Amino acid sequence: MAFDSGFEKSVAIFGSTGSIGTQSIEVARRHKIKIKALTARGDVDRLEEQIREFSPEVCALLDENKAKELKDRVADTFTKIVGGERSIEELAFEVKCDMFLNSIIGKAGLRPTLAAIESGKNIALANKETLVTAGSIVMQKARDKGVSVLPVDSEHCAIFQCLEGYPAKQVSRLILTASGGPFFGKKRDELVGITPEMALAHPTWNMGKKITIDSATLMNKGFEVIEACHLFDVPVDKIDVVVHRESIIHSMVEYIDNAVLAQMGVPDMRTCIQYALTYPDRYEGLQEKLDLAKVGKMTFAEADKETFVLLDLAYRSMRMGGLIPAVLNGANEEAVYLFLDHKISFTDIMDSVKAVVLGYKNIESPTLEEIEAADIEARAAVRRINGII
Ligand code: MG
């Protein structure tokens, strides 16, 4: 039975046709959360289905031609269709709802996050690139506006739960768990011939392509370290990563008395999405119950930062600060799409991102415009290094 008495939350879902977006819709359907707005890049078929089921007030598409197509298709509904580059940001101010859930992929999620915060709505954040590229600006704006940024990523959702009720000064360490990706245990020379198809076969979590490649290189874990610094206001050197292949413990917090709190569950993103949407309440879960006897054993290992250099590079980038985390993100995003396009190899991702990051001229406390310029330059630098014009 869905526990929905007195529960009249409403949400706008940014990126509603992707992996997190569609799982958010399942959670909303189950708990009768009203969907006020949807946005996507251009998946007209899926948007039409979503509009017919949930009757949102407005739906924004990045692709203007697709927006026209959708407008014709749903002309018999009351949903307003808007299109274009800025349509998502504009929608953020227009829609009245309790919360925005941002599951846009990549750096494209940054401006919509800022618009959502500016409009004073709490935000459930699945787009980690927002915090990687401009974490200081985003969190400062959230504080200024009195807006909560609730993590949707499983690790941060776990830490968020383990931190509840304890003052920050009693925390000694955050411990992020990592599945290790499909190439755990492999050394550099074994990574050379990896194809996108091999890398897309993620053992545990069901995710989109970009994040699956980031998981295979451990860049995703590096981003999560940076994300955790911003979300929980913890210095990077108080964050550790441990490989935990079973993905049952989603992350941990160590306190000054050396007690370690862990949050566990069957790996299922809907748990974290739901927690962000229903916080501070808990509602009946959609995922399976955890059966520890069936799990049998849990294993832990050190992350291999020597082979998976991007994890180490994330720590270094965060220590350097300024523009460098945004350069890391932009360079990586470009490299991942080049790899998915079969234009560069798996190890080229690691090598070119590292070269761009370590060769970049940094500035302290950059503005949003400087961050966006660095993002563009980092992408161009990756293409240049790989001989792609
Ligand atoms: Mg994660």
Describe this structure in words.
The protein has 389 residues and is α/β, with parallel strands linked by helices. It folds into 3 domains: 10-151, 3-Layer(aba) Sandwich (Rossmann fold), CATH 3.40.50; 156-267 and 288-315, no CATH class; 321-389, RNA polymerase sigma factor, region 2, helix turn helix motif (Rna Polymerase Sigma Factor, Chain: A). The protein is built from 17 helices and 12 strands. The chain has helices at 19-30, 44-54, 64-73, 87-94, 110-118, 128-145, 154-163, 188-191, 196-199, 209-217, 219-232, 269-278, 292-295, 309-320, 324-340, 346-358, 368-385, and strands spanning 10-14, 34-40, 58-61, 80-83, 99-102, 122-125, 149-151, 171-178, 239-243, 249-255, 260-264, 301-302. Helix 16 packs across helix 17 (368-385). Magnesium ion is lined by residues 153-155, 224.
Question: Any chance you could write out the topology, listing elements then pairs?
Answer:
Blueprint: E1 10-14, H1 19-30, E2 34-40, H2 44-54, E3 58-61, H3 64-73, E4 80-83, H4 87-94, E5 99-102, H5 110-118, E6 122-125, H6 128-145, E7 149-151, H7 154-163, E8 171-178, H8 188-191, H9 196-199, H10 209-217, H11 219-232, E9 239-243, E10 249-255, E11 260-264, H12 269-278, H13 292-295, E12 301-302, H14 309-320, H15 324-340, H16 346-358, H17 368-385
Parallel strand pairs: 1-2, 1-5, 2-3, 3-4, 5-6, 6-7, 8-9
Antiparallel strand pairs: 8-10, 9-12, 10-11
